[in-house]
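Question: Hello, beginner here. Any chance you could explain the protein record under this note? Any guidance would be welcome.
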Amino acid sequence: MTSTTNLATARTVAAGLHGLRERAPANLGADSASRLGLTDSYVEVDGPIGRLFVAYDANGIALVHRSGEGIDQTDAGGFEEEYLSTFGRPVRRVERAPERIDVAIEERVWGRTRNRHAVPLNLAWLPEFERQVLIKTLEIPRGEVRPYSWIAAELGRPLAVRAVGNALARNPVPFVVPCHRVVRSDGRIGNYGAGGPEAKRALLEAEGLDTTELEELPAHGVRFLGSDTTGIYCYPSCRNARRITPLHRVPLRSTHEAERAGYRACKVCRPVAAPQRMAVA
């Protein structure tokens, strides 16, 4: 076969291939980047008390809001405007988030997995103290609560109760970082930025917590429960406290009363004394 023939054949094949070419969809690159979590995107998903908008970027989940038209809810347009105002970048809606975001939603919003994956979050833009508060809040187990004073003490700032409350009130990623599991320092439910006390109760009840009992105990001055068989005292919602049978349950008003009676603090919930100088959050 001559070189002329070879050249003619190559041109024929090239022309045929050119005729098969189709332009890629305009959004192909953006969709691929979104599935990899490399762009600012958001999805709408089911939540325990309604639908949620969950926005994320290359670093992780950045903004969460209840979707809808009621109080403490927003529509898609409002959510996109809030994201742009907060981060200075637009966010685009997609049908499905990348796997790491899906896993975080399943694990943190629904509690459906128990592998304790690291939560992909974008909190770098927050002040250091607020970031510490949110990261500490992630440690509170599903179906349990801790007071604002617990977080303050765990962070080595036992008098910063109000600052903790303010940080949680500004939580940009509720439901993922479970600020609904933080209650007032006197043990009462308290307020909630993503729907008020009723939404907070509904979330806790969805996690299996008896909120009626939770509020009745502090109403009678009870802040801790002790076991007269183990000699350990806990926050009432602690998994260990819920194992105490009624016959062996000892109501306690303070850490001082508990320790004076010979009880030891639970190593799981790590109960702390209420700070002497504070405004209850």
